[in-house]
């Protein structure tokens, strides 16, 4: 495990907290009556993955094809009428599936239909996030507005572990013999073998950015809803990022099976799809490549395992969340009687 993401997160966290405290000090001098307060919260929502198996170029399709869940807890501190900082832990599941994404129109999504990869990944996110309220609060927590829209920006450390299902048919029907297998130790793109890259890290940094709205339920309770996009510095939340390796260079039969799943494709007798498949696997390779070129399709899209998107971004995930916040009662200090 590399310590560079942890070191970078520490620097960004210090800057975020330091900036918030400086802002709080400046506003406390201009508004000495404001009383900082703390809160704790719990939330539930959905999680959606964006990456090689769910492209950025078709955001609505990617957003609604395979949503999953997230659950989180947080502790926050409101330093000024507008500025707050919170620390949170979120457990989120994301998933991607070439077959599910492309089965409605195999010709339009032919590179994915032919590639036929899938994964799921449980993310453990530790985040430090700053919030900015567009409507300032009053002197005490009980004076906060009834409805408060806000923006958020932060940094997070994310532990992840992509997995895939053994013995999975193209249509994805499970049976009792199947199991989820961690993909990173397999080196599905040759990682760790001579002449290939080193294994990718299972820890990365992300940058949560989003918007939300809070509703004051009572003196000590808020209901909040928010949505945030969370780009990461990893291209391997899905275990897909580079080229197909030479199968002979892979260490185990399981690694070879998960590296190239095109051989499990069910083309349903569609001649065009079979020819596209032939271009990728080597059967009648040149004839297949010539047909792709004649059809105006870039043959390289079928020769790459990942990284062929027209929008060259790392993997990311989008979280929606409905939260309940409890305001910790603040002690009001009265001035001494002289």
From TrEMBL:
Superkingdom to which the source organism belongs: Bacteria
Pfam families cross-referenced by the UniProt entry: DUF6089
Signal peptide bounds: none
Residue ranges of domain DUF6089 in the record: 39-163
Family matches, as SUPFAM superfamilies: OMPA-like
Record-linked InterPro entries: DUF6089 (IPR045743), OMP/PagP_B-barrel (IPR011250)
Gene3D superfamilies, per the entry: 2.40.160.20
Protein name: DUF6089 domain-containing protein
Species this protein is from: Fibrella forsythiae
Highest classification ranks of the organism: Bacteria, Pseudomonadati, Bacteroidota, Cytophagia, Cytophagales
């Amino acid at each position: 495990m590399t310590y560079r993401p942890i070191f970078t997160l520490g620097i960004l966290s210090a800057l975020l907290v330091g900036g918030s405290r400086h802002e709080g000090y400046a506003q406390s001098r201009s508004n000495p009556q404001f009383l900082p307060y703390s809160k704790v919260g719990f939330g539930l929502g959905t999680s959606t993955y964006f990456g090689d198996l769910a492209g950025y170029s078709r955001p609505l399709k990617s957003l609604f094809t395979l949503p999953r869940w997230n659950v989180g807890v947080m502790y926050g501190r409101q330093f000024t009428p507008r500025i707050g900082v919170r620390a949170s832990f979120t457990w989120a599941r994301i998933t991607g599936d070439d077959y599910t994404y492309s089965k409605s129109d195999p010709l339009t999504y032919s590179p994915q239909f032919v590639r036929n990869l899938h994964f799921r990944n449980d993310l453990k996110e530790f985040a430090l996030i700053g919030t900015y309220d567009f409507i300032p609060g009053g002197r005490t927590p009980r004076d906060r507005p009834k409805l408060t829209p806000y923006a958020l920006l932060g940094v997070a450390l994310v532990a992840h572990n992509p997995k895939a299902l053994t013995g999975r048919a193209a249509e994805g029907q499970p049976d009792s013999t199947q199991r989820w297998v961690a993909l990173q130790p397999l080196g599905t793109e040759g990682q760790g073998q001579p002449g290939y890259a080193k294994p990718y890290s299972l820890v990365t940094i992300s940058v949560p950015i989003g918007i939300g709205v809070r509703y004051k339920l009572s003196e000590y309770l808020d209901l909040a809803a928010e949505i945030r996009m969370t780009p990461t510095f990893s291209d391997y939340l899905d275990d897909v990022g580079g080229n197909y390796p030479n199968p002979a260079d892979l260490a185990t039969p399981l690694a070879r099976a998960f590296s190239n799943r095109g051989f499990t494709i069910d083309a349903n007798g569609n001649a065009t799809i079979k020819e596209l498949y032939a271009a990728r696997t080597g059967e009648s390779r040149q004839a297949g490549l010539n047909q792709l070129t004649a059809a105006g399709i870039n043959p390289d899209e079928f020769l790459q395992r990942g990284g062929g998107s027209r929008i060259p971004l790392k993997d990311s995930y989008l979280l929606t969340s409905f939260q309940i916040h409890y305001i910790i009662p603040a002690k009001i200090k009265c001035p001494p009687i002289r």
